[in-house]
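User: Can you recover a sequence for this backbone? Please restate the input before giving your answer.

Assistant: Of course. Working from this structure:
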């Protein structure tokens, strides 16, 4: 008998990889993602009829669907093999519903990695569709649809056409806006540090002033610093204590989605969506040995640190054959999952630990190599022994002042043997003993200013979403993407900065839709979705519980939100130089601008003054200009009387000291500097990038 089985996956590259493992009795086809969804143009949810969704074939997908129907009709059975999560289960469910009358035997299969063993194993154990998983996806889809469809028209009516506000994005936007407010309010405080250089047998060592009369010392002015140095100059210095401490540093768990995104952002400079895109390529398969594509990592959407027994045995055998015996712990290392982890999958790990990143480097593109390298090392390190080091601290006293110097010596490198960049920082201490006199050569005072809290970046926002319980492995990257796509947030280097439009929307939503921007409320919705997935609550009753209070807030908002169109179309006193009609202040994607009230007959538009000209004696405004070569620059509206000109980027806010416009400049690998170009002022402030790698080490 020659029976044929149709296997449907959601992407062509996945189809190609699977095709390699299944024999000629299988036909592999791709659905190219979702085929069926809610229509774009209307609510398509029957609220009265217990939230019944109305699904349609997505525009442009009819041909693919017809093709699948034909193939299903010719097959004895169909196996649905989209990715192993809610989204994948929903794709499978929709496919089953439309193919049911073409083929009576339709089942679901899933595999956590696209390797020969996993695919063959999956084919042997087909199952029914998991309705609870599907319902959790439907509930999320409909919840988000209701929020978008009720709030957007209010924003159109009261503010501006085309705006929208979504569920999880609104909380993220509020968090980003709140942080910006803190930064705007921040006033830098001056402080000083003091380092001494001392000479031991012709070699120079240094120590930092740490305490005065046994307490942490704070120096706030140059006068205070000078007084301290004057006192110290006449004093004697001696070693009062040498302390030794051993420290053991354990490796971290293998990656889950959020941690992978955080570390790829911090270490590789990837955005969250780039990390997910590259991880998807590694998961779906790449030809690394000339025999066709193979999946290099396990599924990349997971919140579990669990690994399979097979993977554990193979990594332990890898470590024991490539490292001396003390690099392999006696018992396997175990890691705790977060309390709300779904634990449906394994951690993100290489499918074959013997595939060393350097061995396949020339088969991967640069980004694929970097990410695979990160995943591979994290996984191997997670089953190695801790790094042990010795921290030596030296205390020097002079009167009531205490100085400290410390150095770390690695006694045993353990898991850090995998990564040269991750070795503990060394530092050097002189060969001295307690009571020895110290010969100070130089006092090195340094002025500093406190910095404001850092702006969020991809890494720290994902960390926030994860830790507060708002995010799920599938939602981190889309949340950030949506904010950027709607121009509510823009990227300045790695930093996420709210736009004028973003602040305006946040201002409205946080007043009129308090629940939507409440972390607690959003967490409870995410938990309810998890309960739907675990069949503990019914998805339609969850929706109706949400709907009633939400609809009330929509009705209230409709009444109470003041019409902002007037504010936006405000007259500015300026007259259009082309037609003589008044110019109006408008809100565009990139902020406010001036447009002629004669629109559309007159299309004159120009940028608004950005702020006060930095020249000390000038009362002009900074305006944007474009050079003959098309490059933007900024100049004074009083030109040619005032010759101020710069290519620095306006920071969009006034100097807190003198009120002139601030400009910003990015500091490589560090963050952004905002500075006042007023020569009489000189104010500047650094907004540093937040390094949010957990426990401060790479692996
Ligand atoms: Zn005009
Ligand atoms: Zn000027
Ligand atoms: Zn200033």
């Amino acid at each position: 008998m020659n029976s044929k089985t149709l296997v449907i996956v959601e992407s062509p590259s996945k189809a190609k990889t699977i095709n390699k493992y299944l024999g000629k009795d299988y036909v592999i086809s791709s659905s190219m993602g979702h085929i069926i969804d809610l229509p774009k143009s209307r609510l398509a949810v029957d609220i009265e009829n217990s939230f019944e969704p109305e699904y349609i074939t997505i525009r442009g997908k009819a041909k693919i669907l017809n093709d699948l129907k034909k193939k299903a009709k010719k097959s004895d059975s169909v196996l649905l093999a989209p990715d192993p999560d809610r989204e994948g289960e929903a794709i499978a469910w929709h496919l089953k519903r439309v193919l049911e009358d073409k083929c009576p035997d339709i089942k679901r299969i899933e595999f956590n990695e696209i390797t020969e063993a996993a695919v063959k194993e999956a084919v042997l154990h087909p199952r029914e569709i998991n309705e609870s998983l599907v319902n959790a996806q439907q509930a999320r889809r409909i919840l988000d649809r209701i929020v978008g469809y009720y709030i957007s028209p209010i924003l159109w009516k009261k503010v501006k056409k085309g705006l929208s506000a979504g569920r999880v994005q609104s909380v993220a936007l509020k968090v980003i806006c709140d942080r910006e407010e803190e930064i705007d309010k921040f006033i830098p405080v001056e402080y000083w540090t003091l380092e001494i250089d001392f000479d031991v047998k012709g070699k120079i060592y240094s120590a930092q002033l740490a305490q005065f009369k046994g307490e942490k010392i704070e120096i706030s002015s140059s006068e205070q610093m000078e007084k301290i140095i004057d006192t110290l100059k006449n004093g004697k210095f001696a070693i009062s204590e040498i302390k030794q401490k051993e420290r053991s540093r354990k490796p971290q768990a293998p990656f889950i989605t959020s941690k992978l995104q955080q570390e790829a952002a911090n270490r590789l400079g990837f955005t969250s969506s780039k990390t997910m895109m590259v991880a998807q390529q590694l998961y779906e398969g790449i030809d690394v040995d000339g025999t066709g594509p193979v999946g290099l990592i396990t599924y990349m959407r997971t919140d579990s640190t669990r690994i399979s027994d097979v993977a554990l045995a193979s990594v332990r055998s890898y470590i024991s054959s490539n490292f001396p015996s003390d690099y392999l712990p006696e018992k396997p290392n175990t890691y705790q999952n977060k309390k709300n982890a779904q634990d449906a999958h394994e951690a993100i790990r290489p499918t074959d630990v013997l595939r060393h990143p350097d061995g396949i480097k020339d088969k991967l593109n640069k980004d694929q190599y970097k990410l695979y390298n990160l995943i591979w090392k994290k996984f191997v390190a997670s089953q190695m022994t801790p790094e042990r080091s010795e921290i030596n601290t030296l205390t020097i006293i002079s009167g009531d002042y205490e100085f400290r110097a410390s150095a770390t010596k690695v006694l045993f490198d353990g898991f850090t043997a995998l990564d040269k960049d991750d070795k503990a920082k060394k530092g050097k201490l002189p060969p001295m003993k307690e009571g020895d006199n110290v010969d100070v050569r130089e006092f090195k005072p340094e002025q500093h200013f406190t910095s404001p809290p850092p702006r969020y970046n991809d890494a720290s926002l994902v960390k926030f979403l994860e830790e507060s319980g708002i995010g799920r492995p599938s939602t981190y990257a889309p949340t950030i993407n949506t904010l950027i796509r709607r121009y509510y947030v823009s990227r300045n280097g790695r930093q996420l900065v709210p736009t004028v439009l973003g602040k305006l929307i946040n201002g409205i939503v946080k007043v009129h839709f308090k629940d939507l921007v409440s972390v607690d409320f959003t967490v409870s919705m995410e938990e309810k979705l998890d309960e739907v997935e675990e069949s503990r609550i019914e998805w339609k009753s969850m929706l109706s519980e949400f709907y009633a209070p939400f609809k009330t807030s929509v009705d209230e908002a409709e009444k109470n939100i003041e019409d902002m169109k007037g504010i936006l179309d405000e007259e500015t006193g300026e007259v259009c130089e082309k037609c003589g009609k008044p110019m109006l202040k408008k809100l565009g994607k990139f902020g406010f601008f001036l447009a002629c009230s004669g629109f559309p007959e007159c299309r004159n538009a120009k940028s608004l003054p950005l702020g006060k000209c930095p020249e000390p004696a000038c009362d002009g405004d900074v305006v944007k200009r474009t050079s003959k070569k098309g490059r933007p620059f900024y100049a004074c509206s009083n030109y040619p009387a005032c010759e101020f000109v710069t290519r620095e980027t306006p920071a969009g806010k006034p100097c807190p000291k003198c009120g002139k416009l601030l400009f910003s400049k990015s500091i490589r690998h560090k963050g952004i500097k905002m500075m006042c170009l007023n020569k009489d002022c000189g104010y500047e402030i650094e907004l540093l990038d937040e390094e949010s790698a957990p426990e401060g080490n790479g692996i």
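That completes the design. Residues 612 and 621 are 5 Å apart (CA to CA).
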